[in-house]
C-alpha cells in the first residue's frame, strides 16, 4: 500500500511540475551553443509570468542594453526583465514577449516545457517565422 501511495504522489508531483516554468533556467545561445546566462522565471500578482537575468555566464560586449527601445534602454543586463506578460494556456505559455539584450529587439514569445528543458520561441508576426532556444533547468 505504501508503494502505491508513494507512486501516486510521485506521479502527481511530476505531472504538476511538468507544466510549470517557474524557477531558474540556463539560457543556451542557439547560434553558438554556449550557455549565456541564468534567467529566473516567476509569477507576479497579475497572474502572468516574467523572467529576469540573475547571472551572466559570459561577459557581454556591453553591460547595458544600449539598443533597447523601451524602459530597458541603457539599463544593466544583469537584473533585466527579459520575459514579460506570459500566460499559461494549457501546456503552453503564450501572450508575452521576450527581449534579446544583445540586439535590443523584442519578440512575441511561446514557451513549452519538456522535462528539464524549456523550448523558448521568439518570433515576429507568426510563430513559424522565428527561432527557438532550449533552456536547461538549474538545479
TrEMBL record:
Superkingdom assignment: Bacteria
Keyword match Cytoplasm: no
InterPro entries xref list: DUF2147
Domain DUF2147: 23-136
UniProt-listed Pfam families: DUF2147
Keyword Acyltransferase belongs to the record: no
Signal peptide (UniProt feature, chain positions): 1-19
Keywords: Signal
PANTHER family xrefs: BLL5882 PROTEIN, BLR1215 PROTEIN
Listed name of the protein: DUF2147 domain-containing protein
Species in which this protein is naturally found: Chryseobacterium salivictor
Origin organism lineage: Bacteria, Pseudomonadati, Bacteroidota, Flavobacteriia, Flavobacteriales
Amino acid at each position: 500500500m505504501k508503494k502505491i501511495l508513494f507512486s501516486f504522489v510521485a506521479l502527481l508531483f511530476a505531472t504538476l511540475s511538468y507544466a510549470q516554468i517557474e524557477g531558474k533556467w540556463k539560457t543556451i545561445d542557439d547560434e553558438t551553443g554556449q550557455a549565456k546566462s541564468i534567467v529566473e522565471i516567476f509569477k507576479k500578482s497579475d497572474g502572468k509570468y516574467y523572467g529576469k537575468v540573475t547571472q551572466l555566464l559570459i561577459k557581454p560586449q556591453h553591460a547595458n542594453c544600449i539598443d533597447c527601445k523601451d524602459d530597458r534602454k541603457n539599463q544593466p543586463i544583469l537584473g533585466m526583465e527579459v520575459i514579460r506578460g506570459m500566460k499559461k494556456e494549457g501546456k503552453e505559455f503564450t501572450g508575452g514577449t521576450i527581449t534579446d539584450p544583445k540586439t535590443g529587439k523584442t519578440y512575441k514569445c511561446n514557451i513549452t516545457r519538456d522535462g528539464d528543458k524549456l523550448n523558448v520561441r521568439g518570433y515576429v508576426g507568426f510563430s513559424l517565422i522565428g527561432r527557438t532556444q532550449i533552456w536547461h533547468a538549474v538545479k
